[in-house]
Design goal:
By secondary structure, this protein is of the alpha+beta class. The protein is built from four helices and eight strands. The chain has helices spanning 4-16, 77-86, 95-102, 116-125; strands at residues 22-24, 37-45, 49-52, 58-61, 64-72, 105-112, 129-131, 148-151. It is globular. Bound molecules: zinc ion. Pfam families: DUF123.
Length: 152
């Protein structure tokens, strides 16, 4: 996969945080059917990208590795959500779609029954991640300033 080193570094950071979960990559989504929970989506950007971040805020992402904390407790659960994140043909509906459409590589760490805010906090607490864009993915969230982080 393109950007293998960047993915290995990001996976190392998550593994070091000792979260209970497993990795999925495009083309290998086995084991997600019927499951609900939270996830960290790794998005590798080769180029700079202007993005929205809710409440009319906009920002600019530099090339690099990003981690987005999300959850899927609705119909379709994790299988439908992660499949959508990995799909290259979709209309932009959420801000994160802009990133996944431009990504040069994607992977997701799945935490069944997990909490997206907890995942965002855990990542920030490692000291290896920082908020990428205030408000991104967290407009409904009272505790996080963002659900999108850069991985150093
Ligand atoms: Zn949150």
């Amino acid at each position: 996969m393109k950007g293998t080193t960047a993915f290995e570094a990001a996976r190392g950071i998550l593994d070091a945080a000792a979260l209970e979960g497993h990795w999925v990559i495009p083309g290998a989504l086995g084991g997600l059917e019927g499951k609900k929970g939270a996830y960290v989506l790794l998005v590798l950007l080769d180029k700079a990208l202007p993005v929205g971040a809710g409440r009319q805020k906009t920002g600019h992402l530099s090339p690099g590795m990003y981690a987005y904390a999300g959850s899927a407790y609705g119909p379709g659960g994790l299988a439908a959500r992660i499949r959508r994140h990995f799909r290259a043909d979709k209309k932009v509906h959420w801000h994160i779609d802009r990133l996944t459409l431009e990504a040069s590589g994607l992977a997701a760490f799945i935490v069944e029954h997990g909490d997206e805010c907890q995942l965002a906090r855990t990542l920030l607490e490692t000291g290896c991640a920082e908020v990428a864009l205030e408000g991104f993915g967290s407009t409904d969230c009272l505790t996080c300033s963002s659900h999108l982080m850069t991985i150093a």
